[in-house]
Amino acid sequence: MAIGWYLAVSAIVFALGAAGVMVRRNPLVVLLCLELMLNGANLALIAFARMWGNGDGQILAIVVMTVAACEVCIGLGMIVAIHRRRLPVDVDELRELQG
Amino acid sequence: MSAVLFFIAGFGAIAGAVGVVMLRDPFYAVLALVGHLLALAVLFLLLRAEFVAAVQVVVYAGAVMVLYVFVVAYVGGREEPVGDLLRGRGPAGAQLRLGAAILGGALLVELLIALLGTGLKAVGGEGAPYAPGPHAYGTPAYIGELLLTKFLIVFEVASFLLTVAAVGAVVLARRRIGLEEDEEERERLTPLDLLRPRESGTMAEGVGGVSYEAALARAQSAAESMPDGRPSDPGRASSGEPVGAGAGAGSASEGDGW
């Protein structure tokens, strides 16, 4: 398969993730859509790495996975803390940063 | 063969992504993301990124998604009503969400133009020549050599970032004293906790850090606040927070800096 097809899939996945981040209200699902965007970027990175036969893109993809794992860690910790304080788990209602 | 596999995996990846965005139950959204990640791992294999595909399946679809499932089970994500997803609450919400869908479409068009409309001739090609072998492109040996020679600093920075994130998550999600000590949790301590020898290695000690003195103090405070149910606490009452009946007498610290 030509590399362009992989790039098309990655663009579709990224756009779907971006639309999901804007549309959904549950912060858990917003985090999932962020994962979608990161995965679309990863697919583009690996497709370009294959295009040039160079491993740098794959290393960058692994680093992106690490950053995604950190983001999940912090994001889920924040959601658990929000839930513990009995605040609504809803991004529309959590619009003030009051303590 | 590779074309058939590509279309199956690509369709699976896009279907999984649509599922994550559209399914209203967060648990099913997590499952859709797992399917999406597995399909993406197949695409990685087709692109000769064996090690990254294995990492994707083991770490991402395995470990990270288990974390998600745990949090969904703990928080119990609220189901969004079916028509509510695009309609929102009120006319402003409807316009915003329609605008979000239009923005997503515009982003897709822009990305496709940027990625496929480039002058790069190689975008239409099959990629660089590939020769199989023990140290070939994409194998663990190849990735490991790159990580520990050319990208050593990146490797170390990534590990440091993971450490910071782990500490941050523990700080964020730790149990804060006096914040959530409601009746339900108080009932978990039975009078038998007082009779049991201290440091007996029970589950409660390991998880909650319950010592003999703490159990005694909590039982006493529970007994004291039983008649009226809510001990007076002016600092917390004025802040208007929906704290439970807790703020257990002696242990209510003001150190919840959130």
Task: Walk me through the structure.
The model of chain A has no long low-confidence stretch (mean pLDDT 87). Chain A has a single domain, classed as Helix Hairpins, CATH 1.10.287. With 99 residues, chain A is an all-alpha fold. In chain A, 56% of the residues are buried. In chain A, 77% of the residues lie in helices and 0% in strands. Chain B has 258 residues and is mostly helical. Chain B has two domains: 2-117 and 134-161, Four Helix Bundle (Hemerythrin (Met), subunit A) (Up-down Bundle); 183-250, no CATH class. Helices cover 63% and strands 0% of the residues of chain B. Chain B contains twelve helices and no strands. Chain B has helices at 2-22, 26-46, 50-75, 84-87, 90-116, 140-148, 152-173, 183-186, 192-195, 203-208, 212-224, 234-239. The model of chain B is unreliable at 231-258 (pLDDT under 50). Chains A and B meet through helix 1, helix 2 and helix 3 of A and helix 1, helix 2, helix 3, helix 5 and helix 6 of B.
Annotate the secondary structure layout:
The complex is a heterodimer of chains A (99) and B (258).
Chain A: H1 3-23, H2 27-52, H3 56-84
Chain B: H1 2-22, H2 26-46, H3 50-75, H4 84-87, H5 90-116, H6 140-148, H7 152-173, H8 183-186, H9 192-195, H10 203-208, H11 212-224, H12 234-239
What's the total helix number of chain A? 3
Architecture per CATH nomenclature, i.e. the level-2 architecture of the largest domain in chain B: Up-down Bundle
The average pLDDT of chain A is: 87
Hey, which two chains have the biggest interface? A-B, 75 and 95 residues
Quick one: biggest sheet of chain A? none
Bulk shape of chain B = extended
- Give the CATH topology of chain A: Helix Hairpins
How many β-strands of chain A, per DSSP? 0
N-to-C series of helices and strands of chain B: HHHHHHHHHHHH
User: Beta-sheet strand percentage of chain B?
Assistant: under 5%
Secondary structure tally: strands of chain B: 0
Oligomer: heterodimer
Level-2 CATH architecture of chain A: Orthogonal Bundle
Main β-sheet description of chain B: none
Structural class designation of chain A: mainly alpha
State Rg of chain A: 17 Å
One letter per element, helices H and strands E, the order of chain A comes to: HHH
Q: Rg of chain B from C-alpha positions?
A: 27 Å
